[in-house]
Amino acid sequence: MRPGDAVLLPAGVCDVRVTAWRGAQAREQADWLADEVPVALVFNGISHAVMLASPADLDDFALGFGITEGLLADAGELYGVETCETPAGIELHLTVAAACEWRLRQRRRNLAGRTGCGLCGTDSLGQVRRELPRAPARRLAPQALARAQRELRLSQGVQQLTGATHAAAWCALDGAVALVREDIGRHNALDKLVGALIRAGTAVADGFICITSRASFEMVQKTALAGVGALAAVSAPTALAVETARQCGVALAGFVRGDDLVVYTYPERFGFQGDATGAFGTRPDDGH
């Protein structure tokens, strides 16, 4: 598909006119851009966070964010989501159970008087590194991770048009991509995926998550909170991500590209012999 072709654009994509310089010539042409919109999450009238996000799959985003941020104990505490468009952006009004509102008020009370924080809605290491459930253990073949990354690339409709979004996918144990969500933010994409999985009633323990970004601590934590036992990233993890994955039982692989990968935790689950507390594999040359 080329800019200028007649196409029904997916949500979160807009068309523009641009000037391209190619072959030493300037030419005006059509192009596509990913939308980037401020999205405010409001719980029972209490504003909690404003995220820059793609304006698609917002019901999934609201549920996934609430779960992975520890505000919702389960989907049953979310009674409804109303989307309100304003000149400044989008407001997601979540109607939630009293227990969720209490957690939110406690977090806000802890933040009273603070001038800022490094992570949304947190003021201490204890809140950042929450107690995580033990992730389920499943065996995966390296070929399954390679298949997942291939299929994920083909499933990124917005990325193929704009070149500006991340994606997160839940994949069956054989690597078949079953559900994908895209967003300009890698955390948002994973939150949307978590929300979509819960809403679909997916047996998430019987699969793994594949992402188009690095595997940060938060991505590992969100994977564990979703009840998924393995995370495969196209790029590198951080040291804290590896430590967290080891502690909560998430099998973590990075640099999943083509048929190559690097295993950072639990290599035996990928059919390798190695130290379950350390990395296994050869890091590809990133050119850096």
Question: What does this 3D model show about the protein?
Answer:
The chain has 288 residues and is α/β, with parallel strands linked by helices. It has two domains: 37-128, Ubiquitin-like (UB roll), CATH 3.10.20.10; 142-270, Cytidine Deaminase, domain 2. 29% of the residues lie in helices and 30% in strands. The protein has eight helices and twelve strands. The strands form three sheets. Strands 8-7-9-10-11-12 form a six-stranded mixed β-sheet. The protein has a four-stranded mixed β-sheet with strand order 4-3-6-5. A two-stranded antiparallel ribbon has the order 1-2. Helix 6 runs parallel beside helix 7. It is flat, with a radius of gyration of 20 Å. The two termini are 32 Å apart.
Helix amount, in percent? 25-40%
Numbering strands along the chain, what is their spatial order in the largest sheet? 8-7-9-10-11-12
Named CATH architecture of the largest domain:
3-Layer(aba) Sandwich
CATH overall fold name of the largest domain: Cytidine Deaminase, domain 2
Q: Could you tell me the strand content as a percent range?
A: 25-35%
